[in-house]
Amino acid sequence: MSQTVEKKEHNMAVITVEVPAEEFEKAVEKAYQRNKKSISVPGFRKGKVPRQLIEKMYGKEVFFEDAANICVPDAWEKAYDECEEEIVSSPKIDIKQIEAGKPFIFTAEVALNPVAEIGKYKGVEIDKIDTEVTDEDVNKQIDKEREEQSRMIAVDREAKNGDQAIIDFEGFIDDVAFEGGKGENHALTLGSGSFIPGFEEQVEGHKAGDEFDVNVTFPEDYHAEHLKGKPAVFKCRLHEVKEKEVPALDEDFADDAGFDSVDAYKADVKKKLEERKAAEAKDKKETAVLDKLIEDAKMDIPDAMVETGARRSLDQFNQQLMMQGMSIQQYYQYTGLNEQAMIEQSKPQALRRIKCRLVMEAVANAEGIEATEEDYEKEVEDMAKSYNMKKEDVAELMRPQDKKAMMKDIKIKKALDFVLENAVEK
Question: Residue 158 gets which letter from DSSP?
């Protein structure tokens, strides 16, 4: 097998792949073997019709299409591995020659990895990111955690804003009950705004055991057409009034959280907030630095490269859905989207990822940053730990192209670390 590469504008290329005639003949024979059981000819049992007879009846090219489908994937994979150019898109295949006794020739139009021209990358100036954790931050987090540990307790008093009212209700318009207007033992949080405007306020002031009417008017933009703008009366019965009991910040609360004292609990909350803020600051710093580098860079990114990146995102999303027990077709049905719409939605994010990667490749090349075998071994070891596997087993699964991709990822990460370390916060 041989190949030639013809570079085009905008980092595109056409790779011509030539498969020897004898290899294509093997693919034709394989296509015949796959199809012969479905071919019927008078005087022959199914699966026993000679290939020569079939070709005489239907033409020499009868198996060519299937043979091409057999031949192209393997030939392209080999051509891709042997190509010295860095291909960054799926191939657009075009058959150029398919004849008996002659080499099988096809072309693959692909995008090649662009080279970014970057501006200043050392000492990139960004706005200072605040990482201080104040006492107010700590108190807010503690209040949030206390709120999460709260419980609703029954009280013998009139309901007020913030309480939970357990009610039965049935709605009427012109003294006629309407569909969807009835509920029993419904837990309504007063002040939540989850019911029609004016409803919750009229529950306030009532006690458990009260029966009363609530008069409201449905909004003009209400989702049910037959109820829009209509006045209604809800006959209600209040079963129970509950209020939220938030635990006090005391030794018992600290003990329940696993600490010897309130001070120890507060110290742990502060430490976790500092870690969270540091992580958030790192992300913000990374985004700000990359924005600066991308803004100052020049790069000619082929559309095919962005399309491939968007399709990969869709493939990953599809896998996530499958892990959740949903198919991509079900997702399309629920959302009204389709494959092309999802790809178009993914393109902006795909383009940014590509730009970030290209500027980091340029930094790595400018600084002579490389991934070492030690870096690779460490990455494999980390993968083994995350998958609870032996390092040797993970290493065996890694194909040469997997290792090549991982080494490049490591190189880009090291370049990003270099740029971040040299950034200046002002």
Answer: -
Q: If you write DSSP's letter for every residue of 242-308 in order, what string do you get?
A: EEEEPPPSSHHHHHHTT-SSHHHHHHHHHHHHHHHHHHHHHHHHHHHHHHHHHHH-B----HHHHHH
Q: Give the span between the Cα atoms of 322 and 341, in whole angstroms.
A: 20
Q: Are residues 313 and 399 in the same domain?
A: yes
Q: pLDDT at position 67, please?
A: 95
Alpha carbons 94 and 200: distance in angstroms, whole number:
67
Q: Does any domain span residue 184?
A: yes
Question: Which residue, among 121, 117, 120, 116, has the nearest Cα to 305 in the 3D structure?
Answer: 116
pTM: 0.75
pLDDT at 401: 82
Residue 16 CB neighbour total at 10 angstroms: 16
Pairing of strands 12-19, 2-7: antiparallel
Do 163 and 36 reside in the same domain of the chain? no
Round to whole Å and give the CA distance between 106 and 99: 12
**Residue-wise DSSP of 331-368:** HHHHHS--HHHHHHHHHHHHHHHHHHHHHHHHHHHHHT
In this prediction, the residues of the chain whose per-residue pLDDT falls under 70 are: none
Residue type, 137: D
Burial class (CB in 10 A: 0-12, 13-18, 19+), 123: exposed
The DSSP code for 47 is T
6/155 same-domain check: no
Angle between helices 339-367 and 303-323 (to 10 degrees): 110
State which of 111, 141, 161 marks the end of a domain.
111
Which tens digits make up the pLDDT trace of 67-107? Answer: 999 999 999 999 998 999 999 999 999 999 999 999 999 99
What pLDDT does 37 receive?
83
Determine, yes or no, domain membership for 141: no
Q: How many domains does the chain divide into? A: 3
Containing domain of residue 395, as a range? 262-425
Q: Are residues 231 and 284 in the same domain?
A: no
pLDDT at 60: 87
Residue 103 pairs in a beta bridge with: none
Phi-psi region of 43 (alpha: psi -120 to 50; beta: other; left: phi over 0): left
212: which DSSP letter? E
